[in-house]
Specification:
Pfam families: Laminin_G_2 (PF02210)
Oligomer: single chain
Number of helices: 2
Radius of gyration: 24 Å
Organism: Bombycilla garrulus
CATH topology of the largest domain: Jelly Rolls
Strand content: 35-45%
Structural class: mainly beta
CATH architecture of the largest domain: Sandwich
Protein name: CNTP2 protein
Low-confidence stretches: none
Strand order of the largest sheet: 9-8-7-2-12-13
Length: 245
């Protein structure tokens, strides 16, 4: 496939921060890869480089953040030669690719949700996408519909289901004045707690608990973007432990 124009669009949601959304490569060194890295969207594109090294076509653009929130996100990639519009959730970014070539020269297949093992170092270090996609459209072809009707030939389909399983976790939203108080566990030697959190605020109290019999307390907070744990014990000489990460 040698194209001057491309339009690729899809929607996805995932709770994973890494994963290849789609990939295509050609014999001439051209490639296009859209993937999640550290919960950001990264588009890698190369319309061609020469062996002398004077034309270097690799272009990488990063957009978005916190995309592993299990909410639907929409992507549109519009390419006309070296001019690219990358739209994520209605926020458009325009850029021009490096190099001097206008055509994207790919092999006969592109892959969604991962990339085939090509023997190249880049192919085995990347994770496959884990999550849900819908409305996949590649240059006018409704890929989702064709895959469901088994009209993509030849195609290699892994463990794919045409439904989207919702996670069983129940999130809790806290505003600046709200808190959640739960009963303590008296006469227990072990104090154990785990949770996931997400916030835009650089500081705030995450957890506080007093020990029984006035033996002290434990506090977990965010201070200037770092998580700190403070353990106060009243009956020993070194009565305060501070751990920051």
């Amino acid at each position: 496939m040698k194209t001057l124009k491309d339009v690729i669009s899809l929607k996805f949601k995932t709770s994973e921060s890494e994963g290849v959304i789609f990939h295509g490569e050609g014999q001439q060194g051209d490639y296009i890869t859209l993937e999640l890295k550290k919960a950001k969207l990264v588009l890698n594109l190369n319309l061609g480089s020469n062996q002398l090294g004077s034309i270097f076509g690799h272009t990488s653009v990063t957009t978005g953040s916190l995309l592993d929130d299990h909410h639907w996100h929409s992507i549109i990639i519009e390419r006309h030669g070296r001019n690219i519009n990358l739209t994520l959730d209605r926020n458009m970014q325009h850029f021009r690719t490096n190099g001097e070539f206008d055509y994207l020269d790919l092999d006969y297949e592109i892959t969604f949700g991962g990339m085939p093992f090509s023997g190249k170092p880049s192919s085995n270090s990347r994770k496959n996408f884990k999550g849900c996609m819908e409305s996949i459209n590649y240059n006018g072809n409704n890929i989702t519909d064709l895959a469901k009707r088994k009209k993509l030939e030849p195609s290699s389909v892994g463990n794919l289901s045409f439904s989207c399983v919702e996670p069983h976790t129940v999130p809790v939203f806290f505003n600046a004045t709200s808190y959640l108080e739960v009963p303590g566990r008296p006469s227990q030697d072990l104090f154990s707690v785990s949770f996931l959190f997400r916030t835009w605020n650089p500081s705030g109290l995450l957890l506080f608990s007093s020990f029984a019999d006035n033996l002290g307390n434990v506090e977990v907070d965010i201070n200037e973007g770092k998580v700190s744990v403070h353990i106060n014990v009243t009956q020993v000489k070194k009565n305060r432990i501070d751990i920051s990460s």
